[in-house]
Amino acid sequence: MLALHLFCRTVPGVVAAPAVVDSLFPDATTLAFLDSSLTSSEPYAQTSSIIFPGGEHSGPLGFTFKHWVVDQGPNHGSGRYEIEGEGAVATSVRSVVTETHAGRATFYDVLRAGLTPQLVNSQVDDEFSLGWVGAFGYELKHHSAMVRHSPTAISNPHTSPLPDAALLWTDRAIVVDHARQVMRVLYLEPVHRGGSDHETADNAAMARAQRTWATTTCARLEELVRAASAEEPTREANSDHPTAHSEHSSAHSVEPSAHYVEAPLRFRFDQNHAQYLASIRQAQQSIAAGDSYEICLTNTAEGPPLSDPWRAYLQLRTTSPVPYGSYLRFDDVHILSASPERFLSVSEAGQLSAKPIKGTRPRSGRGRDSDWWRRDLMESEKDRAENLMIVDLLRNDLSMVAAPGTVRVTRLFGIESYSHVHQMVSTIEAQLAEGKTAVDALEVAFPGGSMTGAPKVRTMELIEDLERRARGLYSGAIGWLGLGGAADLAITIRTLVTDRSATTFGVGGAIVTDSDPEAEWQEILVKASALLEALGAEFVDEV
Description:
By secondary structure, this protein is of the alpha+beta class. It has a single domain (about 5-230, about 270-350, about 430-540), classed as Anthranilate synthase, CATH 3.60.120.10. It has twelve helices and 25 strands. Helix 7 (about 310-320) packs across helix 12. GO terms for molecular function: 4-amino-4-deoxychorismate synthase activity. Its EC number is 2.6.1.85. Keywords: Aminotransferase, Transferase. This is aminodeoxychorismate synthase.
């Protein structure tokens, strides 16, 4: 078994995480940036951003992995896989991909293969470690055991032209820790355990490459900190309202410009107003027939491609600061996410946590202030009922991998407030059963129940008919699964996906028996507003 050291070097001080991307990886064709742009005293605010360089900036063990659930070629049944990169981990993953073509393995077995290296002598004092990072698309549901074994499963699912999974296996990362006011440079080295002269030489070469990268990266980060410190007095002196030192004050002066000007963009929904209302009524008929209790119906908006996705993301993180934002770049495919929702986290000790969102109100509108809308959401029996159904669904999902008696709801119907909306959030926690892993938890819980409805499998089958197109990367998950056993994943909502041909995003809501179709339409417009505002775009409803 491959054994790896995880090393960490610390640089005192912080700069804005996007400035690190701009300075160190401006030309990267592959990149993952898990970004907390919400730093505050709120308990749901994250305090670190993580940058994973890929492609030409990868280390000797890093590689890119893509998967399409449906392949139009000879391996139609097992889907299509692409792996770009070499090294021992990539070789192990390729061998399991071969097994998927033979029907003896699944996508989740491929993930497990990437996490088989043994991590020894970690120098990192928190839960984060290197491994898989990227985006998991909604159509990966077809790999779950529940769907594969369902007698009514859709045999010809809707397909997306984009990958259903776009991942990096990464052996390098930079952590910008706003709370501790430090930056950490992480990298992996193979453990030398004897072997042939050739293996010894290869391991030594990999170690030299990683140490050289770490030394160079630390030096460049130190330069950024010095530049920010030199600019700080000037910035304060020129300010009409100098501010006290905050966790971000040292970073403001090197924050890249978020001003993003795009030619006027127009987005159209896949289902227009009348069609979406008809789909809602059809969903309610299915609920009345006993096929479902709650259906999370979504609609996809499409517009032209973005001329500068990175600058658009900087604008999005400015207008919609969130705890689980992200920017992913895989060649021509860019994913810009302002997600407020944690899907699933797993600690190295096996502590599971899920935080579904169900229930949304605007921060203002209709002559009402933010406090009124917050109270309206808090007191809504309908939203509480929707939220409770998803809580019960996730309790059931997690119970399949949890130690008996450990699943519990630690927070019910909490309210979290973001730039544009108030959200109703609950928290479910559990302890992984002995022998179970973060990949096992992902397999039973994916897609997140807040994006499906209940009962899960039957409701997903109904969604196939109601939505009439693939959701793609939307409503899946974005995040990381580490070699140390921990994981942290967000639900892919409030997310733009753009390539050379188009830009899309999805919005939706939970449909129940007493849902008002027009109110549901207004809710998706509220959810779309943050993305449209960031782009300076407008929505066009075609009759």
